[in-house]
Amino acid sequence: MDKVVATAREAVADVYDGASFAVGGFGLSGVPNTLIQAVYATGITGIGVVSNNCGAMDSGLAVLLAAGRIARVTGSYIGANKEFARQYLAGELEVELIPQGTLAERLRAGGAGIPAFYTPAGVGTLVADGGLPWRYDGNGGVALASPPKEVRDFDGVPHVLEHGIRTDFALVRAARGDRHGNLVFNKSARNFNPLAAMAGRITVAEVEELVEPGEIDPDHVHLPGIFVQRVVALTPEQAADKKIENRTTRDRTTGDRTPQNRTSQNRTTRKAGA
Known about the structure:
about 270 residues
């Protein structure tokens, strides 16, 4: 089945207000920026996002966040996204923060048809006991807190019950993909993209290099096409437009790495890599 769609706009034409999205990316690596921009162009609002983080440097999910289109985020990292932190603390955004490994497994479980699983991560903390602020009231108080979760002992070790995640849509970015939706990811772009793709009921992949079926060695496929419904081939310009979060240089004499000026370097466009 040829799953290639002509444009990103066409690939997300059926998204709707209040839809949930699993979105790939790790920091600024492997972020499906073209698809996110296409979703932004639809004008939908009130969406729920499941992603490791919520974008940075005015790119990725930060575009939707700054426009007030996101109502809820399930993730594991706020990082240096000041607008994310502002909306959360002001009570404008509902946020479920969970351990990063738990987030990864919840996405994988959802895609694999596993409704829930037990993990020791979070036992003895608010993750298991409840009380994590999901939404603030804008005045420093908690308007909505997380509920307590079931805890059960296995071989004398307590484990907390976590539920698998399924979303209406998934947006991912791959280094290579074929017309059947088989995908290959580059380095750290592989951290969350395959898992996000598995969790979506309708998964859309933007690929830097589109190849014909059979050109990817089956042993090299990171995500089989059964998890992907639509494929969008990026233009060379779109494929090359990649940001660097923090650039460092190595002193040739000592080998020490020194951060460069972040203000000038954070918006550097990278032409190769993940």
